[in-house]
Amino acid sequence: MVKRMILKLKPQAEEISQNKAKTDKLLKKAKSKRRKSKFPLQSGVENFTLLFHALKSWRSGEYPHFPKKSVILITAGILYFVTPIDLIPDFLFGIGLLDDAAVLAFVVNEISKDLAEYKEWKDNKI
Fold first, then answer.
1. Of 19, 20, 82, 123, which is least packed with CB atoms within 10 Å of its CB?
2. Which parts of the chain sit beneath pLDDT 50?
3. Residue 91, SS3?
4. Measured in whole angstroms, how far is the alpha carbon of residue 115 from the centre of its chain?
5. Quick one: pLDDT at residue 87?
């Protein structure tokens, strides 16, 4: 089911990832929603943070090494997070962000090799 949700968002994610202004707008929305949201699981926070920073680093040109497929998947995952229409509505206390966390975990799993390389680059940069 998660894979289907990502595939549904893929065309929109591709369009967003090809436009810097739209990518910036998505990142801004995601940051704002994250500040207001309480993930029920720590892994949801970690996955969101990793994907957010990865897209931001790619967008700025600081880390241009992500394959196009990975950028689209990251964008789709973050897009799902900010989209108000979810499998489980976000306003349901305690469980509303479980579907968001599942989508983000799916994206992390799908592009784990690329994210591992990004994390290594990020850790060595400091």
1. 123
2. none
3. coil
4. 12
5. 55
Please give the pLDDT value at position 86. Answer: 57
- Tell me how far apart the alpha carbons of residues 36 and 34 are, in angstroms, rounded to a whole number: 5
Cα–Cα dist 82/98, whole Å:
14
Buried b (16+ CB within 10 A) or exposed e, 58-94: bbeeebeebeeebbbbbbbbbbbbbbeebeeebeeee
Question: Where does residue 61 fall: left (phi above 0), alpha (psi -120 to 50 degrees), or beta otherwise?
Answer: left
- Count CA atoms within 13 Å of residue 26 on its CB side: 28
Instruction: Find how far residue 111's CA is from the centre of its chain.
Output: 11
What per-residue confidence (pLDDT) applies to 94? 56
Hey, what are 120's tokens? 């290594």
Q: How high is the pLDDT of residue 100? A: 84
